[in-house]
Design a protein that fits this description.
The structure is a homodimer. Chain A is globular, with a radius of gyration of 19 Å. In chain A, strand 3 and strand 4 form a beta hairpin. By secondary structure, the first copy, chain A, is α+β, with helices and mostly antiparallel strands. Helices cover 36% and strands 16% of the residues of chain A. Chain A contains 6 helices and 5 strands; from the N terminus they run H-H-H-H-E-E-E-E-H-E-H. The C terminus of chain A is likely disordered. In chain A, helix 2 crosses helix 4 and helix 3 crosses helix 4. In chain A, strands 4-3-5 form a 3-stranded mixed beta sheet. At the A-B interface, helix 3, helix 4, strand 1, strand 2 and strand 3 of A face helix 1, helix 3, helix 4, strand 1 and strand 2 of B. The structure holds a DNA duplex.
Chain lengths: 166, 166
DNA sequence: CTACATGCAAAGGGTTTGCACGACA
DNA sequence: TGTCGTGCAAACCCTTTGCATGTAG
């Protein structure tokens, strides 16, 4: 599952380049957090990244790891699984449906699409396990956010997102 | 966004039926939590369900709402957005890829599928906003969990899931 | 040099749990 | 009447933040 060495280098330079071009100082801590996430084969949590980096930078603290990871997310250099900073949300809709997620405000909206309901399980998945449910997630900017004043973020009336923007 | 009255009734009876057939008493609190989640048009968090139910059952407590919602999830009667009980996980893989999520242990595994990379944006989505990224999530049981002894759950070596399995 | 980043520790906030009381079968 | 469910409050745990110190550019 680990990426090739080549791929790691490529990601790493993308990360460091992205940070530098944003005027963010490339400290040893940030560099090593970047290296760790660039070479991760799965989807580590902050604690896991912390443990990895600490082997090379024993003095790093967990909150610096968090800060660096969120900086990378904010710059669009890495992603999170699920919606960032989201508390648990429940979905009572058992009919097949899919989700549109606004990456700015976090609002998740259902939509239906017959074509997506009947996606066949690709070969790559059969060795992983048995599929019971398939859902398509489309991420982008919702209409409301697109219209909203360029700068800061806004919150939907339904009250999402503690908001970590910038 | 609210479901039709008809649809609500249908969901509600599915929920209550599922609980009863599992030998779970249908108290007024549980009934009203079921009603609330059945009639929700979006994806409420526990707090939001709590506020709704409290209008009808003023004495209900937040933790009863949580307990009931998780009971429904455990019975497969409702879902959560994202992986239940999951802390924030970061994904350094910026190349297009998709996820297989094991609903038992929570493990999220990447897979590639060219067909999924090029899914076109359906009409239903255009009025919602602009799509920047599309990801398919397939949920099911991973090979390891399928093989594991029927009863209790196990945790992957990578250390997922606090584990709430009935 | 000077602004920015780090580490520490404490606060914060959502979620879960232990326990005694209350309610339904 | 016994068992199961509820409410309360405290515990938990991940995550964030304020502040003094350290450091990259």
């Amino acid at each position: 599952m680990r990426p090739e060495q080549d791929e790691i280098e490529q990601r790493l330079s993308r990360f460091t380049g992205g940070l530098k071009s944003a005027g963010i100082k490339l400290t040893i801590q940030r560099l090593e957090v970047c290296r760790e996430i660039a070479s991760a084969g799965s989807h580590p949590d902050a604690e896991s990244v912390f443990r990895g980096v600490r082997q090379r930078v024993p003095t790093i603290s967990l909150d610096t790891v968090y800060r660096t990871l969120w900086t990378l997310v904010d710059r669009g250099l890495i992603d999170t699984l699920g919606v960032p900073h989201e508390r648990t949300r429940f979905d009572g809709n058992t009919a097949p449906h899919h989700h549109f997620v606004c990456t700015r405000c976090g609002e998740t909206t259902d939509f239906c699409c017959d074509a997506f309901d009947s996606l066949s399980v690709p070969e790559a998945v059969t060795p992983l396990g048995t599929v019971q449910k398939t859902q398509v997630e489309m991420r982008g900017i919702c209409l409301r956010c697109a219209k909203a004043p360029a700068s800061g973020d806004h919150q939907h009336a339904t009250g999402h997102r503690p908001g970590r923007n910038q």
